[in-house]
Every structure is written in structure tokens, then in C-alpha cells.
Amino acid sequence: MIITFRTKILIAIGIFLGVAAVAIILVLHFTPRIPPDDCTEPGQIEIHPTPETSPKPYIKWAQFDVPYDILLKAYNYDTKSYGTDIHYNWIELLSYAVAKNYGNIDKKVAKNMDECVSLLKEGKTIDEITSNLKYYPFYHEVYNSILGGFLQDGALKVYSPIAKGYYFNHYEDFGNVRSYGYNRKHLGNDLLGSVGTPIIAVEDGTIEAMGWNQFGGWRVGIRSGDGRRYYYYAHLRKDHPFNNKFKVGDTVKAGEVVGYLGRSGYSAKEGVNNIDTPHLHFGLQLIFDESQKEGNNQIWVDVYNIVNLLNKNRSEVIYDEPTKEWNKK
Ligand SMILES: [Zn+2]
Questions:
Q1: Which CATH superfamily is domain 177-328 in?
Q2: Span 199-222, pLDDT tens digits
Q3: How far apart are the CA of 173 and the centre of ligand 1, in A?
Q4: Angle at the Cα of 207 (from 182 to 142), degrees rounded to 5?
Q5: Which residue from 68, 141, 110 is spatially nearest to 302, judged by alpha carbons?
Q6: Per-residue pLDDT tens digits for 227-280
Q7: What distance in angstroms lies between residue 104's CA and the mean position of ligand 1's atoms?
Q8: How far, in Å, is the centroid of ligand 1 from the Cα of 274?
Q9: Residues of CATH 2.70.70.10 domain(s) within the chain?
């Protein structure tokens, strides 16, 4: 076969086009492609949060179901050992006892607590004892958030929300159904007493809320100094609900009178008594992250046994005629 000059030219063009096509395909294949929605320029990467400023993980849910006898046992170990060679920290004992039992509350918890005390007595440190307890850090953070400010120098420095000398009655009512407005759970403890009973600030803190709330009526909200606890006192007296020496933003000391027991609430209108039985609704909210203060992520814990413990320290009050207020003696 005779290959003409024209055929040679066509073959040469064909080979050239083939090589060019392969080259184009290879170049396209290895060129890094930037996703259309990624507008990040390399220079901006440093500006965005580094690991140090990224949001830290925080506890999303917690409960307090420690029975009173266990709470008291830990409290006694702590307060009685204060000032001796080995001081047992009640929050550490409780955290160990519950974490060792995988969060289950049963008879083993008390035994675990005694076991923890024996190990500490032998000279072991709490870090050594708990190094293999997976749930210890969680329970320690939760219990420390609730009870962390309770003891100082081996004594209870927080107060019952009901003043000394005033009768009140309460029962385990956390989680009961409430139907005013909408079906919901009762997130506190109702302390039944007489209208006008002085209501006490449990802990030092700052008044964050003082005024009317449809559900709580006249209510006071006090935040602890570390920001972790929000104490909620609701259904205060209709006509003279608050101690008038306080306003939102003020700091209060544990034991001071912040208001008076009543039956206000369950009304969108201010100053209405729609609660049948006079009582203080006492609630405790835990805040591990500020996003949990409002909205659907709130954590309220059962304070029934805490109220029982706080009964050990009632604030004595005296009446001041000129201001018509009760104050801490
Ligand atoms: Zn209530």
C-alpha cells in the first residue's frame, strides 16, 4: 500500500489531537477543585476559632436522686472529719459511691461510701481511688455544681428557704404533672406554709429576676456567684411580695429575707392570686452553659432532699416596723 503524503499529514494530525486530548484530561484530573460553596481564603483560616476558643463540651442533662440518708451520711463524714488528719470531702464520697454503682441508687451506694472512706484512711488519694471509675468525673461535676457552695469550714453555710420559727410542710412532688397552661412536669418542690412567711436566700448571689411571671406569679430568681445555680422562689404574697430593699442586679447574702410566701400566679395579669394553697415553689436550675438558662435545654433538679438538709440551718429574722419588712437578725 502506498501511503500518500496527504495520508501522512492526516495521521500526524490524528496523533497530535489524540495526545492533546489525553494531556487535557490528565491536567483536568489533577487540578485541585474548590467546592463552589467554600469561599475560605487561606489567609482567613487563622482568624476562625482555634481549639482553645472552640466551645467546650458541657453537661446536657443531669438529675439529683440521692436519697436523704445517703446525703446525710456524706454530710456527716465531711463535717465530722473537718479539721482532723484526714478530711473526707462529701462531694467526692457521693461521686465515688454513685459512680462505682454506675449511677444506680440502691443499698450498694452506702457500702461504696464506706469503702471509699476505708481507702482514704489507708492513705490512698481520691485521684488514685477514682482513676478507673469512668463515671466519676461526670458525677463529681454534677454534685459539685449542686452542693459545691454548701459547706465552708466544716459547717453548712447555706440556709433553708423558709425562715426560722415558721412551720412548713412538703412532700416529694418533683416531676408531678401540672396542667395550668399546658401539661408539664413540676420542676421544683412546694413548701406549704402561711401567707407572709419570710422567704430566705439559700445562698449568696445576684438577683436576676424580680417581678411577675404568668406561671410563678410574683417570683424572685437568684444566681449563685459561680453562675452554676439559679434559685427560683415563686407564688409570693400578692400585695407585698418582695423585700423592698432589693431590686434586680443587687447582690444578696445567704440568709437574707428576699420575699414573703403567698399564692400568686397562674394568671397573665399581674398581682392575681390563682393558687389555692399558699406555698412557696422552690426550684433549682443547673447551668453548665449559658445556653441552658432559657429555652428547651433547662436542667431543673429535685430539691426535696436538699430542702430536708437545709432544715439544719434556718435563718432567724426580725421585723422592722418603719419599713414593714422582715430582715435577717
Ligand atoms: Zn411548685
A1: Glucose Permease (Domain IIA) (2.70.70.10)
A2: 999 999 999 999 999 999 999 999
A3: 8
A4: 70
A5: 68
A6: 999 999 999 999 999 999 999 999 999 999 999 999 999 999 999 999 999 999
A7: 27
A8: 13
A9: 177-328
